[in-house]
Automatic annotation (TrEMBL):
One of its GO terms (molecular function) is methyltransferase activity. It is found in: Endomembrane system; Golgi apparatus membrane; Membrane. The keyword Hydrolase does not apply. It is a single-pass type II membrane protein; Single-pass membrane protein. Belongs to the methyltransferase superfamily. This is Methyltransferase.
């Protein structure tokens, strides 16, 4: 009997032991999977964020616009304390543009507008305070009312209402500026002017989608093109015409501070369907035609260049322009010579407007084949432009098999081109990005945007007019939210792994190259929403996270929103700094669940204005 009892006990112990072993195996398997996901590193803060996050509800984080002069409530984050609290800068910095600072600009040569180009402060000179909005600042009017009206308190500069009074640029009425849609070359309004263009250029059918306006004033040309589904990138310098680019952005029109000077434009080759100069004061015939050659670089094969104003039709207008016949004739002759050298075809000259068209390829330009005097650019990468000196040379076009082929590949009319595979990808010009990868990226961003809009329900409503994507990639975010209610500035960092900005333009979107270790070429408070995907990981060990966040705060409007997607450890640090910048924040899980290391940080900038006695001098 004793032997039988002992045998039964052994079987029981074996069964228990086996259960324990199986249980431990299951436990360590789950633990291993958890650690592999990145959450087993002992980061208690990240773990608490994961535990407490609700992907659909953000307690106390309001995306509403209040137009309030009172400071809104405290941060909604209950997990992280601010790393530091940033004080307001002095009120004199209200419209501070670090890389186009007027005092610094005067130290540089005036030749070829060098002093109006980007001249950024050394890192040790960066401000570590918050740029204050002016007293009385309110949210801009919604589009399309914003096209015609801007609150005076947001841009309190009346000089253009006097200087450009007879040209119908802008008028001051009570507590708002009104923009009648006029310009130096179209005092009767931009609509009639664009009608004249449309009689020659195929604007209505989607062939022309992206445009470049050089010396844009208050961007009325770009503003009125928008209703024709044409997206214009406008630029003008920060000069004596105070706030012209600021007015453009307050109106809800794409624009940056910029100038044709000594360095190349921050856009890829073959980007724009149309380029435009309306009395922009650029000396097109100077420097061996260098500026026209730069326009040729960024103009798409088959694209159009519009020049209105001096010296076009000089025989009739020379007295009004207060210049001699000889001077104006020589200028127009020189422009014509350079256009011939570039193999542009003049398709129209009527009144004070002339229009040229760029050839589709080099094969259709016999003179280019014959003339050895044409100086071709030696660079093998025409998109390598950041701080690169402009040269008087012609950018070669991609080779074609015959005269009927479009150099670089034909592009569909808009909106079909938005989701079509861009020619740069189809032709294998972006390493590692296939047509299948492009389609997969499109699908992913539609999924991301759906998740974003479930949290910030204003995302797709038009509440955010001016939107920036700080690390745009293939433009998937912009494509997923594309709407006449908003536009996106797609920024491709100069340190990005892939040269994708050309493909972004081939989708009918606009954007710019930029290095986020420096300030962006815009005024404060010019964007309603900022999106940043993997940006802080990209710039890790390149420059200060604090400097990038302060720049984001500078260009973000009060009550504007931020969406940052990055690794959880990175976002924890970002969140800590953001709380000290008067941002209300909340971190949420990835759409695929809490085991994914990538998280999303949502933020809203609190409303506040200048006049604080505790400001940093």
């Amino acid at each position: 009997m004793a032997l039988k009892a002992s045998s039964g006990d052994n079987r029981t112990r074996s069964t228990v032991f086996l259960c324990i072993v199986i249980g431990m195996c299951c436990f360590f398997y789950i633990l291993g999977a958890w650690q592999k996901s990145g959450f087993g590193k002992g980061d208690s803060i990240a773990l608490e964020v994961t535990k407490r996050t609700d992907c659909t509800v953000l307690p106390n984080l309001s995306f509403d616009t209040h137009h309030s002069k009172a400071t809104s409530g405290g941060s909604s984050s209950d997990l992280v304390s601010p790393a530091k609290k940033f004080k307001p800068c002095a009120d004199r910095y209200t419209d501070y543009t670090p890389c186009q600072d007027q005092n610094r600009a005067m130290k540089f040569p005036r030749e070829n507008m060098n002093y109006r180009e980007r001249h950024c402060p050394a890192q040790k000179e960066n401000l570590h305070c918050l740029i204050p909005p002016p007293k009385g600042y309110v949210a801009p009017f919604p589009w399309p009312k914003s096209r015609d009206y801007v609150p005076f308190a947001n841009c309190p500069y009346k000089s253009l209402t006097v200087e450009k009074a007879i040209q119908n640029w802008v008028q001051y009425e009570g507590n708002v500026f009104r923009f009648p849609g006029g310009g130096t070359q179209f005092p009767q309004g931009a609509d009639k002017y664009i009608d004249q263009l449309a009689s020659v250029i195929p604007i209505a059918n989607g062939t022309v989608r992206t445009a470049l306006d050089t010396g844009c004033g208050v961007a009325s040309w770009g503003a009125y093109l928008l209703k024709r589904n044409v997206l214009a990138m406008s630029f003008a310098p920060r000069d004596s015409h105070e706030a012209q680019v600021q007015f453009a952005l307050e109106r809800g029109v794409p624009a940056v501070i910029g100038v044709l000077g000594t360095i190349k434009l921050p856009y890829p080759s073959r980007a724009f369907d149309m380029a435009h100069c309306s009395r922009c004061l650029i000396p097109w015939g100077a420097n061996d035609g260098m500026y026209m050659m730069e326009v040729d670089r960024v103009l798409r094969p088959g694209g159009y260049w519009v020049l209105s104003g001096p010296p076009i039709n000089w025989k009739v207008n020379y007295k009004g322009w207060q210049r001699t016949k000889k001077d104006l004739e020589a200028e127009q002759n020189r422009i014509e010579e350079i256009a011939d050298l570039l193999c542009w075809e003049k398709v129209s000259e009527k009144g004070e407007m002339a229009i040229w068209r760029k050839r589709m390829n080099t094969e259709s330009c016999p003179s280019r084949q014959e003339e050895s005097t044409v100086q071709m650019c030696e660079s093998t990468n025409p998109d390598d432009v950041w701080y690169k000196k402009m040269k008087a040379c012609v950018t070669p076009l991609p080779d074609v098999k015959d005269e009927s082929e479009v150099a670089g590949g034909a592009i569909k009319p808009f909106p079909a081109r938005l989701n079509a595979v861009p020619p740069r990808i189809a032709n294998g010009l972006i390493p590692g990005v296939s047509s299948q990868a492009f389609q997969k990226d499109n699908k992913m961003w539609k999924k991301h945007v759906k998740a974003y809009s479930s949290v910030n329900k204003y995302l797709l409503t038009g509440r955010y007019r001016n939107i920036m994507d700080m690390n745009a990639g293939l433009g998937g975010f912009a494509a997923a939210i594309e709407s006449p209610k908003s536009w996106v500035m797609n920024v491709v960092p100069t340190i990005a792994k892939m040269p994708t900005l050309g493909a972004v333009y081939e989708r009918g979107l606009i954007g710019i190259y930029h290095d986020w270790c420096e300030a962006f070429s815009t005024y404060p408070r010019t964007y309603d929403l900022i999106h940043a995907n993997g940006l802080f990981t990209l710039y890790k060990n390149k420059c200060s996270m604090e400097d990038i966040l302060l720049e984001m705060d500078r260009i973000l409007r009060p009550e504007g929103a931020v969406i940052i997607r990055d690794d959880v450890d990175v976002l924890t640090k970002v969140n800590s700094l953001a709380l000290g910048m008067r941002w209300n924040t909340k971190m949420v899980d990835h759409e695929d669940g809490p085991l994914v290391r990538e998280k999303i940080l949502y933020a809203v900038k609190q409303y506040w204005v200048g006049g604080n006695q505790t400001a940093v001098a």
